[in-house]
């Protein structure tokens, strides 16, 4: 079945960097777009960035443009989110997601905490 294992979260100071990874299994990873989402306490889950199946097209939330970069390595079945110049408002649980045959699949999430 479709599974994601996210890693790379942690605690950093304002201005620091983290690289999240989402390792996928159970489906043809290279055929599907991927997205990174986040959910802060008391807030709705929001889309942070998305990438097309081949990696040729990306989109970002306005709040992270110029600071975050989404990428993927289809040979490794892994999607990444490079996060630079982190701010306290980036604190959240980060999830990867894909939609396959109209069903959404989510990872378990990884916590990112940015201290001021």
Taking the sheet with the most strands, its summary is: 7 strands, mixed
Mean pLDDT, rounded to whole units? 97
First and last CA, distance: 40 Å
Shape by Cα distribution: globular
Please write the string of helix (H) and strand (E) elements: EEEEEEEEEEE
pLDDT < 50 runs, ≥5 residues: none
Structural class: mainly beta
Helical residues, percent: under 10%
Strand content: over 45%
How many extended strands?
11
Rg (C-alpha, Å): 13 Å
Tell me the number of helical segments per DSSP (H or I, 4 or more residues long): 0
Describe the structure.
By secondary structure, this protein is an all-beta fold. It has no helices and eleven strands. The protein has strands at residues 3-7, 10-13, 18-25, 34-39, 46-51, 58-60, 68-73, 78-83, 92-100, 103-106, 110-115. The strands form two sheets. Strands 2, 4, 5, 6, 9, 10 and 11 form a seven-stranded mixed β-sheet that branches. Strands 1-3-8-7 form a four-stranded antiparallel β-sheet, with no helix packed on it. Strand 7 (68-73) and strand 8 (78-83) form a beta hairpin.
């Amino acid at each position: 079945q479709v599974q994601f294992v996210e890693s790379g979260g942690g605690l950093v100071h304002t201005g620091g960097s983290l690289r999240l990874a989402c390792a996928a299994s159970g489906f043809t990873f290279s055929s599907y777009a991927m997205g990174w989402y986040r959910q802060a306490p008391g807030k709705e889950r929001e889309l942070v960035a998305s990438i097309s199946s081949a990696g040729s097209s990306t989109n970002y939330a306005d709040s992270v443009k110029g600071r975050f970069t989404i990428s993927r390595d289809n040979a490794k079945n892994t999607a990444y989110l490079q996060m630079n110049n982190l701010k306290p408002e980036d604190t959240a649980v980060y999830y990867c997601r894909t939609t396959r045959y109209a069903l959404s699949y989510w990872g378990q999430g990884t916590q990112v905490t940015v201290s001021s």
